[in-house]
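# step 3/5: fold
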Amino acid sequence: MPIDLTVEILKVGPGGTETLATDQARVFLGKGALLARDVTLMGRSPLKEPLTEKLRLRAELRPLGVTQAGLALVLKSKVQVLALSGSGQIPRGDITRSLNLEIAQGASELVTVYESPPLDTKVTLHVKWSLAEDSEAPGADPTQVALIARVFEVGDSGETLLADHRLVAVVGHPASTTVDRLVPLPGNEPKKVRQDRLEITLVPLTLSGRNLSLSLEVSGEIATLTSEGNQSHPLAHQGNYLLSPGVPEGAELEVRSGSAGKEGWLRVRFRIEITALF
């Protein structure tokens, strides 16, 4: 039995409630839906200092069953604080939660996954669900789509292919892959390198005729690693695309360092190219 899930990411603070993002997925009972977002919180401390927190949010929602009481759902979340401006220290570990929920049909559930005392702000997930209209014949296999995810680094002299990943995804379910590499940096420090890490999540949303609606999410970081400490620069992208068979679509991302002289690089540009075969 497929379930349609809708998750709103809310920022709840002194200024009220703001919807930061909305994600939707069609999930079969016992399977999981992955939510991946980078979130930025901005405000002022009690001393009126400007503060910014950059967070990386991951959540898995796994519907277990539907009864007269509603939907039984397991929600696991993990929040990592990537950067923090102003006074304060970045937590050493991730902030995690694991909950068993029961949501009545037509109702919803609010789950707080992160709290920022300096900003007096919470990040809350607003979870809603409904029974999906199953148009497939009983016993029919879920529709699968072959996907090609290519990652290029874009430089002044052209493009360099970094990764060429072949994936298979079921419509309504995510497929993920990761690109992770180390790049030596110029300088006198032998251990000075740059780590590029990109997590790519593809979710085929609907397949209609010769058109595939697909959600692309990219998250990760570019980190300068030295013997004196590390400097992290987060990256994130989310977009919905309409793909035709064999015709690539995608996006470009750019990350800049704080100082080319200090970190050994000024900017890095990537191009993500997605091709669907169906």
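# step 4/5: annotate
The mean pLDDT is 87.
# step 5/5: archive (pending)
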